[in-house]
From TrEMBL:
Single Gene Ontology BP annotation: mitochondrial electron transport, ubiquinol to cytochrome c
PANTHER family per record: CYTOCHROME B
Domain Cytochrome b/b6 C-terminal region profile: from-to ranges: 150-301
Species whose genome carries this gene: Phakopsora pachyrhizi (Asian soybean rust disease fungus)
Membrane topology: Multi-pass membrane protein
One GO location term (cellular component): mitochondrial inner membrane
Protein name: Cytochrome b
InterPro entries: Cyt_b/b6_C, Cyt_b/b6_C_sf, Cyt_b/b6_N, Cytb/b6-like_sf, Cytochrome_b_C_euk/bac, Di-haem_cyt_TM
């Protein structure tokens, strides 16, 4: 047991499965959690609010600079989790928007091979996400959080009960309030009316509008005629997050623009949005060259 506590790798697990105190009725609690969790999963799809919290979590990391050393590994594992989540959500769209359809289907139409592949993938991916989340927590506890408030001494710390439990309850109540507003007053606000049109298995729909949390990536896919290259571009747009610890500064406005473009058709004026930053770059370059030319002429005179 001593080696279990002092080992550089096993020591990270010890606070969770070794010295972690558990209630005497832990088995009853686990059974209730499994039954209620599976029952809830049969009746609801919490993807929208799930991705809201995912994006808020990423935004908090960007705002507080949680990707800096020594927490670069924590950030990298988080990016891998995001890639797996997006890949899981995009599996259904990949059957109709890419030229990999025969490879994904296992033939010229949906068959038993297709069902086996999708069952295997959807069965395995949640376990992969859960394992990555556990590794994410382990790497976080190696160096601790970045403590953006600057509280370093133990004298300034508070016990988790009742202070932080009450704070978390306030957050939970706010979440249910926002959820109730969406459910009761604007259930279709973040959806799309085209999704209510019955599907025609013979004809590809004129407009495929994914859920709002996939719109930025769908805009990238729409902008590239070769859909395989579009999927590679989406993958690259997620991998670029791994470069943030090196870049240290990045703007997220393009994420909002891509989200809006993803809900629009490939037509004017949306196809010229790319010209706006290009024009600004050319303009600034010409101004700089002009200033250099004026400065050189002054030196000659």
């Amino acid at each position: 047991m001593r080696n279990f506590k002092t080992h550089p790798i096993l020591g990270l697990v010890n606070p969770y499965i070794g010295d972690s105190p558990q209630p005497s009725n832990i088995r009853c609690c686990l059974i209730i959690q499994i039954i209620t969790g599976v029952t809830l999963a049969m009746h609801y799809t919490p993807t929208s609010f799930f991705f809201i919290f995912v994006y808020l979590h990423i935004g908090r990391g960007l705002y507080y600079g949680l990707y800096k050393s020594p927490r670069t590994l924590v950030w990298a594992i988080g990016v891998i989790i995001l890639i797996v989540i997006i890949a899981t959500a995009f599996i259904g769209y990949a059957t109709v928007i890419t030229n990999l359809i025969k490879f994904i289907w296992g033939g010229f139409s949906v068959s038993n091979a297709t069902l086996n592949r999708f069952l295997s993938i959807h069965f395995v991916l949640p376990f992969i996400i859960a394992a990555l989340a556990a590794i994410h927590l382990l790497t976080l506890h190696e160096h601790g959080s970045s403590n953006p408030l600057g509280v370093t001494g133990n004298a300034d710390r508070l016990p988790i009960a009742p202070y932080f439990i009450f704070k978390d309850l306030v957050t939970i109540f706010i979440f249910f309030l926002v959820l109730a507003i969406f459910v009761m007053y604007a259930p279709n606000l973040i959806g799309h009316s085209d999704n209510y049109i019955p599907a025609n298995p013979i004809q590809t729909p004129a407009s495929i509008v994914p859920e709002w949390y996939l719109l930025p990536f769908y805009a990238i896919l729409q902008s590239i005629p070769n859909k395989l290259l579009g999927v590679i571009a989406i993958f690259a747009s997620l991998l670029i997050l791994l470069a943030i610890p090196v870049m240290d500064m990045i703007l997220v406005s393009d994420f909002v623009v891509l989200m809006y473009l993803g809900s629009q058709h490939v037509e004017q004026p949306y196809i010229i949005v790319v010209l706006v930053p290009v024009t600004s770059i050319i303009e600034n370059t010409l101004i700089d060259l002009n200033d250099v030319g004026i400065e050189s002429s002054k030196n000659i005179i």
